[in-house]
Write a structure and sequence with these properties.
The complex is a heterodimer of chains A (about 325) and B (about 260). Chain A is mainly α and about 325 residues long. Chain A has 15 helices and 4 strands. In chain A, about 45% of the residues are buried. By secondary structure, chain B is α/β, with parallel strands linked by helices. Chain B is about 40% helix and about 25% strand. Chain B has 10 helices and 10 strands. Chain B has a 6-stranded mixed beta sheet with strand order 6-7-8-3-9-10, sandwiched between helices. In chain B, strands 2-1-4-5 form a 4-stranded antiparallel beta sheet, covered by helices on one side. In chain B, helix 5 crosses helix 6. The longest helix of chain B has 21 residues. Chain B is globular, with a radius of gyration of 19 Å. The chains are: A mainly alpha (about 325), B alpha/beta (about 260). The interface between A and B is medium-sized, with 29 and 40 residues.
Chain lengths: ~325, ~260
């Protein structure tokens, strides 16, 4: 309490471990929001279920490793396929609905997934979460294979950079995924396929009238978004070294929407900048020392993010990278 | 104009189409034909069921019963996109420009059979995708020139004037290379000069490419002077069909327009 108001501690800038964690989280949210950008910004389907796809991806991977004896590297693609199939299954009946009803269905889907995970204790560990299985003295954890890869990367880096940050390997993998996502999705957007998606965003009936099977494209859009959700789910599981139902609450999806709004609709670069900005803001404000109790400061951090979002809506509704014309013209 | 259903060959045969909304039969057993290479007008008082009939035969609303054959093939149960791919393409009463997309993208979107629209081809055959894309672009630019929209190719479609949007919608529909174009009130809300040009385009396309048109129109002068055949609807039924002169003198038609249709 003796600190002067609004001082930053030196730790704010020197804590490499802390900021590495923030960057990992920002990268995970960038991956999640890339999927949302594809759905919301480029296809015009409002997907509120990204947290559900993350949970399906994470849980499938862990259950395949721990219960079905899959190798980690086989479990990853299998979990991706499961998540994408789940997306298609959800999309088939619900993508025929109007945008707002679809949003409600996806939100409900995500909650059903989370509550199922919480209660299917035999499979998911319920509220204990999933991490390791013990058989006598042997212990198997879902991230064993990843740990060994991570360690060898760290050993390699140690050769020319002493005491590397333990999160470095995950940081690299997450941000490599973000980079591939931005480049890959950017390429897709410029193709005739991407053109059909944008046309659906503008006017689905007009697009059908021109001979495009719009449901198929919306399903593909949702499946790709589910794929990205699955990857984000893997990364979150590796970062937290556990999979717990509480980590897949709807708030996760809403933070990703915050990222989307900050970055701007119909821009993949915007998503990346938005993710870093949101989490720098959210976590950086931890170091602001105010003459009030810590709980109040914690609450204030979210208030600051809220104020930034409101200010953005008032003065730059298209977000940082969104195109104003597209926003004004798009109905 | 003696083009009434050349040799009796009908491109579109609509038989007994019924579309109910609750207790109301918006389309109540409509029967008519559209001759290959003809310009056929669909007229009728407000609420006669013209737009609902359009929606039913193009797959935008599911008809309760009846049949619609395009070139002999039954299409009434097909989804909208499949009907469009078979060559029967519609426009809407209120123009549907894809506003936040450039004019050129509006055009290129409409081309049929694009390999680049299949996700797999983007990875497996990128060269074919690019080649086809160049062809589509060239065709789109050419058509835009014809419709005097060449200079606006790069602009967002939402920045076009109402009349230009009508032209864009027609040009865009032509990108699909249709056999039969269904136009829902193409002259509505545009100035007479542009309307005139739209009609000229229709006549030219019919003359040069043998394209067939079915259009809904309220302007009797346009209907009488520019169509080979007129189909008149009232209260969900087709009450008359024939060459303009014949339809004009039909007592049932006169009755319908005076509000006395029984």
């Amino acid at each position: 309490m003796s600190a002067p108001p609004l001082a930053f501690t030196l730790e704010a800038f020197t804590n490499v471990g802390f900021w590495s964690g923030v960057l990992v989280i920002a990268g995970i949210y960038a991956v999640v929001a890339l999927g949302l950008q594809l759905n919301v910004g480029y296809t015009g389907i409002v997907n509120f279920g990204q947290a559900g796809f993350m949970a399906i991806g994470g849980y499938s991977m862990a259950i395949l490793v721990l219960e079905a004896g899959f190798s980690f590297w086989l479990a990853l693609p299998a979990a991706v396929l499961i998540t994408m199939a789940f997306g298609v299954l959800i999309g088939l009946p619900s993508l025929r609905l109007r945008a707002d009803y679809f949003a409600i269905v996806t939100l409900a889907m995500a909650e059903v997934v989370r509550l199922t995970a919480q209660n299917a204790r035999g499979l998911t560990g319920g509220n204990k979460g999933l991490y390791c299985e013990f058989e006598g003295v042997n212990q198997t954890c879902f991230d064993d294979s990843w740990r060994s890869v991570s360690d060898s990367i760290l050993n390699f880096v140690d050769g020319f950079w002493a005491d590397p940050e333990p999160l470095l390997p995950l940081l690299l993998v997450v941000w490599a995924t973000v980079a591939i996502g931005v480049v890959g999705l950017g390429y897709l957007q410029g193709t005739p396929w991407g053109r059909v998606l944008r046309a659906i965003r503008e006017d689905e009936d007009a697009t059908r009238a021109l001979g495009k099977n719009t449901l198929l494209y919306k399903l593909q859009s949702l499946a790709i978004s589910a794929l990205l959700g699955a990857f984000a789910g893997f990364f979150l599981a590796l970062f937290l070294a556990t999979i717990h139902p509480d980590d897949y609450e709807p708030i996760v999806t809403f933070f990703a929407f915050g990222v989307l709004i900050l970055g701007g609709l119909a821009s993949y670069r915007g998503v990346v900048v938005g993710a870093v900005l949101l989490w720098a803001l959210l976590e950086g404000t931890r170091f602001v020392e105010l003459p009030i109790s810590e709980e109040k400061t914690a609450a204030l951090r979210f208030a600051i993010v809220g104020v930034v979002l409101i200010g953005l809506m008032a003065f730059r509704p298209q977000g940082m990278f969104g195109k104003r014309e597209e926003m004004v013209l798009g109905d | 104009m003696a083009t009434e259903a050349r040799n009796g060959s009908a491109l579109l045969e609509v038989g007994g189409v019924v579309k109910r909304f609750g207790g109301i039969r918006a389309v109540d057993g409509a029967d008519f034909e559209v001759g290959e290479g003809s310009i056929t007008a669909l007229i009728g008082p407000n609420g006669a069921g013209k737009t609902t009939l359009f929606n039913s035969i193009t797959g935008f609303q599911r008809a309760d019963s009846g049949s619609a054959r395009l070139g002999g093939e039954e299409i009434l149960r097909l989804p909208a996109y499949a009907i469009a791919r078979r060559g029967m393409v519609r426009t809407f009463q209120i123009t549907r420009a894809l506003a936040a997309m450039p004019v050129i993208d509006n055009m290129m979107l409409a081309a049929g059979g694009q390999p680049g629209e299949r996700f797999r081809n983007l990875i497996v055959r990128p060269a074919a995708v690019r080649r086809h894309e160049r062809e589509v672009r060239a065709r789109a630019e050419e058509l835009l020139e014809v419709f005097d929209l060449g200079e606006r190719a790069g602009a967002y479609a939402g920045t076009l004037s109402g009349g230009q949007r009508k032209l864009l919608e027609l040009a865009r529909a032509l990108m699909t290379q249709p056999r039969l174009l269904l136009l829902d009130e193409p002259m509505a809300g545009i100035n007479p000069t542009l309307g005139r040009r739209l009609l000229d385009h229709m006549q030219r396309l019919r003359g040069e490419q043998g394209m067939t048109f079915l259009f809904i129109e309220h302007d009797m002068e346009v209907v009488m002077n520019h169509s080979d055949r007129v189909v008149v609807m009232a209260e969900g039924r087709v009450i008359a069909a024939g060459v303009p002169q014949q339809v004009r003198e039909d007592p049932a038609v006169v009755d319908a327009y005076l509000g006395g249709a029984a």
